[in-house]
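User: Second chain of the day. Same drill as before.
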Amino acid sequence: MATLKQLEALHWIAVLGSYEKAAERLNTTQSAVSKRIQELEADLGTALFDRSKRRVRLTVKGEAILPLTDELLDLHARLVAIGSSQAAPIRQLRFGVTELTALTWLPAFVAEIRATYPAIVLEPEVEMSTDLFQRLRDGTLDFIVVPDSIWQPGFTSVPLASVQNVWMCSPALMHDRGIVPLAEIGRFNILTQGTRSGSGLFFAKWLEGCGVRFPRLVTSNSMIALVGLTIAEIGISYLPLHCCGGLIEQGKLRVIETDPPLPPVTYAAMFRSDESANVVNTISSISRATCDFSHPIRWA
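Assistant: Same format as last time:
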């Protein structure tokens, strides 16, 4: 029988991308996390992670089991919150998300929080990550969902999911096939979200670590604008792979494989450290239950 600790280990390894980070999050050792996964695999009779790769990757069965694991963990968190909380129901929620969340799972989150608290007053805001963080610091927002790269001491960060970005362009712009050295794409305009964006800051730091500097940058504060500019053959941009999957299937965008590839970006729900446990536990649970960056909203 799978234990709660085993399921937590599976969840955090998948979200954070390594045994080491999962151990830090669970306040235990890497060997203890490894043992929990081995015991879980033995109980289930199947391997959950592909150990032939350098990076931690779920097996096919592991990917199928992970959503069920998250559902069980969310149910447990809700039971604990209901059983232990003496706080009054949440009556108002001011929160901020970036464009990617607004285009994907924000409606599901709003529907779930409304079902949990029918009388709640919701005030969602959509802004750039650094602007949202400043509003969280100022107390004008109760929580935000942003890339965890902007976290600072004094705030609580709850990882939700990792988003895989890839370089993309119009099929008419670049005809190179196969894996392209990262510096080579610099001969085109590089479209970015800039330093007010959490992902923009994350990738700027990553590129600096790779020793790559692109001379022709076009910066926009809108992901939708970047998608449009990319489709229009203005340049190459990093975009969320699964969210843009439909545009790839339609032949409007194509993926450029680079060496090295872009690392995933972990998104987190962030709260001020003085936020009540009731709010943190409830919002984190519902966020994890509804978080899905892979399916954009369909309005046509």
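The longest helix spans residues 60-84.

User: Great, on to the next one.
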